[in-house]
């Protein structure tokens, strides 16, 4: 049974509520952007097929090569996370992934398409673990589960 001493004070709850309202919407938007970035190739396929003449096989390999880069660089990205911290890692990931996404407009051949998709996977690797680690910096274990479920 909890006593008054065990229950968090109203001021502590207010602090965590304020942190949540400032942090979680931003992280949620970032996570949605990451998800959309992974699947947007399916939407771009229709227009790019007309403009660049890529076949379905080119798109299939391009979609798959993204996950190859993501898989290969997940651990190195997390080692960098441990070394330089969550904030700098998330900034690095978001900046490089944004530049690579913008660079997709310069794709003219299947080779550059594959390279850009692979690099997108490389730069996006570590985002989700970095976000989880960032939440551990702000929330104690007993509050973290609820916050992770929101994101």
From TrEMBL:
Enumerate the subcellular locations listed in this protein's record, separating them with semicolons: Membrane
- State the Gene Ontology terms under molecular function: transmembrane transporter activity
The record's section on InterPro entries has: MFS, MFS_dom, MFS_trans_sf
Cross-referenced SUPFAM superfamilies:
MFS general substrate transporter
Q: Which GO terms describe its cellular component?
A: membrane
- Indicate how the chain sits in the lipid bilayer: Multi-pass membrane protein
* Keywords, alphabetical: Membrane, Transmembrane, Transmembrane helix, Transport
Signal sequence annotation = none
Domain Major facilitator superfamily (MFS) profile per the UniProt entry, residue ranges: 23-151
Indicate yes or no for the key word Transmembrane helix: yes
Per the UniProt record, which residue ranges are transmembrane?
19-37, 57-77, 89-107, 113-139
Q: What Pfam families does its record include?
A: MFS_1
Q: Which PANTHER family match?
A: PERMEASE-RELATED (PTHR43791), TRANSPORTER, PUTATIVE (AFU_ORTHOLOGUE AFUA_6G08340)-RELATED (PTHR43791:SF36)
Q: What is this protein called?
A: Permease transmembrane protein
Give the species.
Answer: Caballeronia arvi
């Amino acid at each position: 049974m909890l006593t008054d001493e065990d229950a968090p004070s109203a001021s502590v709850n207010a602090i965590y509520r304020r942190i949540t309202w400032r942090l979680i919407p931003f992280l949620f938007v970032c996570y949605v952007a990451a998800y959309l970035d992974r699947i947007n190739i399916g939407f771009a396929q229709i227009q790019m097929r007309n403009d660049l003449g890529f076949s379905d096989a080119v798109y299939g390999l391009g979609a798959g090569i993204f996950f190859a880069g993501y898989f290969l660089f997940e651990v190195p990205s997390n080692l960098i996370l441990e070394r330089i911290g969550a904030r700098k890692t998330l900034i690095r990931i978001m900046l490089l992934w944004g530049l690579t996404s913008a660079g997709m407009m310069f794709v003219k051949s299947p080779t550059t398409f594959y390279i850009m998709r692979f690099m997108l996977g490389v730069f996006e690797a570590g985002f989700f673990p970095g976000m989880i680690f960032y939440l551990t910096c702000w929330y104690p274990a007993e509050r973290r589960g609820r916050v992770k479920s929101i994101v």
